[in-house]
Amino acid sequence: MKRREFLNIGLLTLGGVLVGRNFAFADALTETQEVFRRADPVSSYDMIINGAGLCGFFIALEAVKKGLKVLIVDKRTSPGFDIAAKRKLWLSAEGLEEWDKSLLDLFFPTDEQEESLNNTLESPRKSRSGNELLLFAGSIKKGMLRSLLVNQVDVLLMNDVCGILTNDRSETSGVLVASKHGVFSIPCRSFVDATDGVLFTRELFAQKYQIREAGFVLEMDSVHKNSLGKLHLSGLNLLNDTVSVHAGKKDKDQYFVEYRFATEDNDLSHIEQRARLLSAMVSKQIREADPAFSKARTRYAALECSLNIEGEIDSRKIGIKNYYYMENSSEFYTCKTVCGIKEQAKSLVEKIEKSPDMNSVSQVYYIGGKAECNVVPECYKENGFMTPLSPFPVDILKLDKHKTVLLVAGAGTAGAMAALSASQKQIQTVVVEYFNELGGTKTVAGVNGYYRGYQEHKFIKELEQKIKTVAAETNLVTTLPRSYYYLQSLLEHKCKIINGAILCAAEVDKTKLKSVTVCQNGRLYKILAELTIDATGDGDVAYFAGENYSVGDSRMGITQNYSHWDIPFKPKIKDYNRDYDIINNCEILETQRGLYLSHYESHFYDFYPMLAIRESRRINAVYNLSTRDIISDTCYEDTIAQARSDYDPHYFSSSESSRCGFMLPHFDNMSMVNIPYRSIVPRKIDGLLLSGKSIGQSYKALQFTRMSADITVLGYVTGMLAAQILKKKCNVRELDVTPVQKELIASSYLPADATVARKVDLQDIVDKLSTGDETVLFKCCMQEKKQILPLLQAAFEKRPEIFLAKALAWFGDTSGSNYIIDELKTLYRQEQQEGHASSYFEKYDDKLLYWQINKDIALLGMMPATEDGNEMINYILEETKSGGEMVVSDDAYTKGRIDLQLIPYYNRIVNLCFYLERNPDVKFIENLEKLMDDPNIKGYKTSEYNQTRWRIYGANLELLLAVAAIRCGSMKGTECLISYLEDIHSNFRYFSRNELCSVYGKDGGYDRAAWRKLVKDKKSLKVSPLKKSIEV
Question: Which interval of the chain is the signal sequence (predicted)?
Fold first, then answer.
């Protein structure tokens, strides 16, 4: 059966069964290739659906059957919120006989069975326990997303609908969506609200309603087998003083406990916070309630509450045509109610006709108001890829304003602690967080432990002891004790927490941050704070305020691999934390791509809701920390915190210091990194402090400061500094940090000598190199050229030595080139005699012969070419091949590291490219092109999402070879770069275009045809050496 035929059949089915564990991208991800390419601001969607729960899901599938072009939007990171996010992972079997194979495939994919350890379950598909059918949350999320995509429904996650656009006839003509990337309009001809409780419609049209009660689900293990349906728990103000108990699918000792409680108001943040405070009490008391729970542990919890809403919607007050809604009022799901939702969706879609007319825009409706709108849509593109979104100016909306003294943006690793320390100092603080759980990467991304970082820091030890105490007292385990402690502590210190909110814009008056715009459950409003801390991890507030920033390395913008953690349940091996790809989460399409890939790759049981992004924006600060500072052990008079890590880039790194072997992955400087106050102060924006990993620092420096222990401490210190600024009523640039430093030193949170600046003895470094001390070579190379080069030249003239020659080469001086060439010849002859194994697995050991050769190749590339140097490099190039196929690790953890599964000669080829780019010559073309044709090297461009995970490093190598070739004058390199203008990775498209522009001196954009015409018109291609500054 042909692929297209299968997709057509997919229009009639759900297809969830086909998403297997670690499902092959070659088979699955091609299905997402057309996402967003079917729509643009001109053509518009026939229907946009708000909410990807069961209602929105079935409406979307019915609409595409009717031939409608559909977009479904959800503020969450996954579809299926009414089952998966609320963790109601059971269905009554009533009505099972009405289910067809497609529903069974969606809810119970056969491939999930290998993950279930519960051998007591019965048919259908080993999912039944008594009268209940048990579910995996991961299966629901994976199956629903794939079913939408395979049926050609566009899916936009992490976006919240916050407005409706209409024409002068009051007909729907589009929607507004808010995301971490901004506020955008998307054109459409009809709109369906399928949000939880249809809350968006209730709020938009000021309908009266009341959330009467809420429900919350805890997942427990170590529970003895029991037949309890209800359990009595008194004194907790639960409805009827009872909890309901449901068996789990994962294992026999897994059970779900649901409790309900009366709500005081409609504030969803308050409701979610109360549910989590109750969770600790339920978890603690349930052990005493029944012997079956005597050893029970609460290991996970729902992401959001179930809501019981009173109040009928008066459709007469909905003054917009082609506006529809569908309410799911089911509190308890049965197979019959699922069929009912499906039929209700079908009936709704039957009312909607496809309109050929494109609607203009004259008004925008938003919660709390209505405004005239004459905004002309502009197609929003990201490095050549078109989106259906158009930037929308929120300043035309009259939004509510809320004032506070301090705003903390983000309650993750840094933000929660920043809010806590400021609140402890009696500063009125508001913290805004996207998730309902606090703690960021360490909780909602599942990275609960510490890999590196200064774990012996007194504050970290105190914090971890408090979290352990919470765990012991409440029986909460995994990430739950941490998020509970953060919540309890912030509320105890009267910090206001706003959950479920998206920061989407900022207002600046000259250079002063005036306000931050927030979207919370579809409502836009502004927060006006005297001071704001950007602890988003991505520098979102600083970005919206207009501060300059950098992402990734200086040339390609490439960042570290991102990962997405499965939720582990009695894992036999550590296979739940895997790297999937490299994405730039500052871009909309890249973020969506990351979410899609994670759903396809993740386990059926479940996976955490947050992508573990290791690297994002680095905001330009008054002082940007660099590798030079780190290697020189620099101390500052305004040091406020420290960090401790080895160099862990989750990438091979094409930078000079890595290619020359000074800073290979897991290089350890064996010292603390000092962070100055100036690095958390934005360069030009006032009223703002930075915290977390987005502070002012270089791409290389970030690898030493990004560990969670250090970011936690930095967050806490940032809150202290914010309190001092507010009490002194001074500008962020005017703050005297001495009082805070004294407090930190007195608390043993900062060593006193970290604030004492000291100079590096350059002559001592040179003297040690002269005596053959290689340990100071990297430190030497990290010094200012104008200061140390004369000392090196004088020392080499007096006493030529190989390490002095290498230091000179780093600074572009050819005086010692022959020493390096001679060493390279000797080393390479030795490798030819010993060989290089086809099973070589990259461990980045710079003492290996393989890396000794690589280092010398790169050092020769740091200086102008010599005839002998070119001859030797060309000889090595001629002898170099891929070495064989990608070498796969046999270790469970490293097997998930895409940056370590490489072909045997990967880094040799990278270093040859490093040399050839800087010293191009037509004599290299023949051997370069031969290498480009190696079957283990070519053909890694990915334009249809297929096998992205295991192709990205092959693609990166292919690109580097193409760039080296084009700079040597090769047309083969040109054609390769042109083809990569349509690669799915934004970084690769950006890099290919920039390199083509650099060599050809013209710009064909991302248009392959335009570039081919430019190339055809150019009769010959001259060599074009790379000119770039050293990245520190």
Answer: none
